[in-house]
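We store sequence, tokenised fold; for instance:
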Amino acid sequence: MPRIAGVDIPDNKPAGIALRYIHGIGPTSAAQICEKARIDPHIRAKKLSEEELSRVASILDSDYVIEGQLRRQLQQNVARLRDIQCYRGLRHRRGLPVRGQRTRTNARTRKGPKKTVAGKRSVKEMR
């Protein structure tokens, strides 16, 4: 397994797809990296030479924010929103959807499992 930026890249995948295993690298940036490093994106990652791997690593270091640095940057952005107490920061703090999604139904990923309230009856049962 080649190791780039502290991440083990899968051997059996093409280089253009294997680069996506690095946090912060998607399809477009993977294609751009392969182009800059003069690597065929369809060649398997295990067939890349040490020189090609070092070219990719140097491109990643100079042009992209990836892995731990990117995660840290995202955490700092959310912490800044919380500190200035803007609407988005309050939603992050309360664990609710941030981008305007409805919460009456759905939003279970952010809110967690349902908390059933004892003694709550529907309108039909009250009549």
